[in-house]
Specification:
- Its cofactor is FAD.
- Pfam families: Acyl-CoA_dh_1, Acyl-CoA_dh_C, Acyl-CoA_dh_M, Acyl-CoA_dh_N.
- By secondary structure, the chain is an alpha+beta fold.
- The protein has 20 helices and nine strands.
- Helix 12 runs antiparallel to helix 13 and helix 16 runs antiparallel to helix 17.
- It is globular.
- The two termini are 44 Å apart.
């Protein structure tokens, strides 16, 4: 069984030496208290919580799962006590306003927390994680009474929150939402309908659960323009224990994340309160969607990291055959797996995705901090600018990193061979849990369409690619004369040119054939992910080379390992991007020409 160990050295490397969060925090209105000592203390205490309390429940929670009896969900043994310890530490309000009981620290610290907790035990982390969306929505769109009523218990963690979007007949296409909201004389609404796939929809961790629900007013326009947003608590404030017409009808029987309660929620004339403007529900719901998708992208690196922490010790201990270049452990019956080239390939791929993805997430976290800074300063222009910058990154982070996290979790299982397929080693659970990450918060296909169709082509006409690729060009031009960094610099210059060429060609082709966006979007997203990760591995290589020459906080072997992993990524992983570029530019005919009735002749 993999035992979680917080990757503090790699986290500190990125926070202190690559991205200089100390200077970044000094630019934020809520960053004054985020001193290096404070950040170090937070990381250290979080590591203890995750390693000693949350992580040990990962496998037992999967085995026990959640239970539903008489409309009440109970979580696995130990979850309630672990959540109480989490709440007692003040962790839920880490990045939320002090006026509601939070610590008021930058959002990026919340993402560091989410990564660490999610790697230790993703199903557990989902319970407090779902509350964050409800808290953010109420904070930005709720009226003063709603904020006063709900934000303090949510921030303290004594209440939890959910986001209720999906219904049996609609997932991504929310224009089909049917849940009804009937106005009442006292200004409240009666909410009636069914929501499915509701993570943390019911549980026994908190005294109340606040549902943020999409529903339609009786005279609402059809489609997405006729959806409003409502606060619907399990128990009305002041009436804890009295039914409000909200009940869990069933628990979904899932492939993975079994300790996370995924519920079918039935609303039977439940009392709700509108949040935001009438028929503006989607705008309110998706205000913080970019930051939410960063949180989901964390799952990609979380599973890559945990799989790596499980497969690396096994590869060092398990013996099989002799290395092709000669005996490595002559006194043993066979050489350790780590001496075999193909096993090393899989290990290095896990390491490259976990550490490269972490760099991508931490970079985006600074954008999120700047976005929140605009909100705190009541500077709408600043908020919109950074939200737009983040909007380009998030489909790449969410789509690419979750796909790659699943891929390397499978690699970890492969390293174990047949033992990887057996529950007692824990690898198959990571694969099962990783699978959902590519589906929720928008499938990879939806992320790809959002990236190419909306962000790149419609909203910016390719400007967002041009703007980000300037970072690659800047790195390339500045480091071409550096003997150690020249290979990376040259490749980044080529990628920047190819990325923009790819964007322009798709744009021109799509003007003639609209299906081009759909057939090219997945390959475009994956290419963009490789291009972005290449930049961040080059950046880490540059810092590591500098620290080897001038000294850094870590031993020289740490920086040498960074350089070796960067070389592996550029030589063995980055070439895959070329195939995605070629596929993205192929005509739509090969994908679209086969008639639906001809996909099979043996069954209907």
């Amino acid at each position: 069984m993999p035992t979680y160990k917080a990757p503090l050295r790699d986290m500190r490397f990125l926070i202190n030496e690559v991205f200089d969060f100390e200077s970044h925090y000094k630019t934020l209105p809520n960053g004054e208290e985020a001193t290096p000592d404070m950040v170090e203390a937070i990381l250290g205490e979080l590591a203890k919580l995750c390693e000693n309390t949350i992580g040990p429940l990962y496998h037992s929670g999967d085995h026990e799962s959640c239970k539903l009896e008489d409309g009440q969900v109970t979580t696995p043994k130990g979850y309630k006590e672990a959540y109480q310890e989490y709440v007692a530490g003040g962790w839920q309000g880490l990045s939320h306003p002090a006026e509601y009981g939070g610590q008021g620290l930058p959002m990026s610290l919340g993402l560091f927390k989410q990564e660490m907790m999610g790697t230790a035990n993703w199903p557990f982390a989902m319970y407090p994680g779902l509350s964050l969306g409800a808290m953010n929505t109420i904070q930005l769109h709720g009226d003063e009474d709603q904020k006063a009523t709900y934000l303090t218990p949510l921030t303290e963690g004594t209440w939890a929150g959910t986001m209720c979007l999906t219904e049996p007949q609609c997932g991504t296409d929310l224009g089909q939402v049917k849940t009804k909201a009937e106005p009442q004389a006292d200004g409240s609404y009666k909410i009636t309908g069914t929501k499915i796939f509701i993570s943390s929809g019911d549980h026994d961790l908190t005294e109340n659960i606040v549902h943020i629900v999409l529903a339609r007013l009786p005279d609402a326009p059809k489609g997405t323009k006729g959806i409003s947003l409502f606060i619907v608590p399990k128990y009305l404030p002041g009436k804890i224990g009295e039914s409000n017409g909200v009940v869990c009808g069933s628990l979904e029987k899932k492939m993975g994340i079994k300790a996370s309660a995924t519920c079918v929620m039935n609303f039977d004339e439940a009392t709700g309160f509108m949040i935001g403007e009438e028929n503006k529900g989607l705008e309110c719901m998706f205000t913080f969607m970019n930051s939410a998708r960063i949180g989901t992208a964390c799952q990609g690196i979380a599973h890559a990291e945990l799989a790596y922490q499980g497969s690396l010790p096994y590869a060092k201990e398990r013996r099989s055959m002799r290395a092709l270049s000669g005996k490595k452990d002559p006194d043993a019956v066979a050489d350790a797996l780590i001496h075999h080239g193909d096993v090393r390939r899989m290990l290095l791929k896990q390491k490259a995705i976990a550490e490269g993805g972490r760099a991508m997430i931490y970079f985006a976290a600074q954008y999120a901090d700047n976005m929140i800074s605009g909100m705190l300063e009541d500077d709408q222009e600043k908020y919109d600018r950074w939200d737009s910058e983040l909007g380009f990154l998030t489909p790449i982070l969410k789509g690419f990193l979750t796909e790659k996290g699943l891929e390397v979790a499978n690699d970890a299982m492969q390293i174990f061979g047949g033992h990887g397929y057996i529950k007692e080693h824990g690898m198959e659970q990571i694969v099962r849990d990783a699978r959902i990450a590519t589906l929720y918060e928008g499938t990879t296909g939806i992320q790809a369409l959002d990236l190419l169709g909306r962000k790149v082509l419609l909203s910016s006409r390719g400007k967002c690619v041009r703007d980000f690729s300037k970072k690659l060009v800047d790195f390339g031009t500045k480091n071409l004369r550096d003997g150690q960094l020249r290979p990376y610099a040259w490749k980044l210059l080529k990628i920047a040119a190819e990325w923009n060429y790819l964007t322009t060609r798709i744009m021109l082709n799509a003007a003639k054939d609209r299906e081009m966006v759909g057939t090219a979007s997945h390959d475009f997203l994956m290419y963009s992910g490789y291009a972005m990760m290449a930049y961040f591995w080059a950046l880490q290589a540059k810092v590591a080379a500098d620290k080897l020459e001038h000294g850094g906080a870590e031993p020289k072997e740490f920086y040498q390992a960074k350089l070796a992993t960067a070389e592996f990524f550029f030589e063995r992983m980055l070439p895959t991007a070329k195939g995605h570029a070629e596929a993205a530019l192929k005509p739509t005919k090969s994908t679209m020409q086969l008639a639906p009735e001809h996909f099979s002749f043996d069954y209907e």
